[in-house]
Amino acid sequence: METVNKMDENVIVVVNGKPVEAKRFITNREGKTYQFDRVAMKVKGGFCLDQMREDEVIIAPGLIYREVTETRKAS
Questions:
Q1: Does residue 19 have a cis peptide bond before it, meaning omega lies within 30 degrees of 0?
Q2: 26-63 b/e with 16+ CB inside 10 Å = b?
Q3: What CA–CA distance (Å, rounded) separates 3 from 63?
Q4: CA 18, CA 27: separation in Å to the nearest integer?
Q5: Per-residue confidence in pLDDT tens, the chain, 75 aa
Q6: What is the pTM of this model?
Q7: Rounded CA separation 49/42 (Å)
Q8: What is the DSSP letter of 28?
């Protein structure tokens, strides 16, 4: 049986009608881990930051990641 490291998994999402491979988890410089949550909605050619929560980050090409907390790791 092979062990799969979930931290290294990728997901395929559709951005602007095209499939994009995104990392399931990312880590910032401070060591915080974020999990892919959704693709950002475009509004008038850009991204409206009102769609984001305080514990989320957005990276090109419009991927929103949410900070992983202890309670979220358990689910």
A1: no
A2: beeeeeeebbbbebbeeeeeeeeeeeeeeebeeeeebb
A3: 27
A4: 25
A5: 454 556 678 999 998 889 999 999 999 999 999 999 999 988 888 888 888 999 999 999 999 999 998 755 544
A6: 0.79
A7: 10
A8: -
Task: Record the tokens describing residue 23, joined without a space.
Answer: 């990392």
SS3 content of the chain, % helix, strand, coil (to 5): 15, 45, 40
Q: Phi, psi at residue 71, to the nearest 5°?
A: -70, -35
Dist CA 5 CA 33 (whole Å): 15
Closest CA to 19 of 65, 64, 61: 61
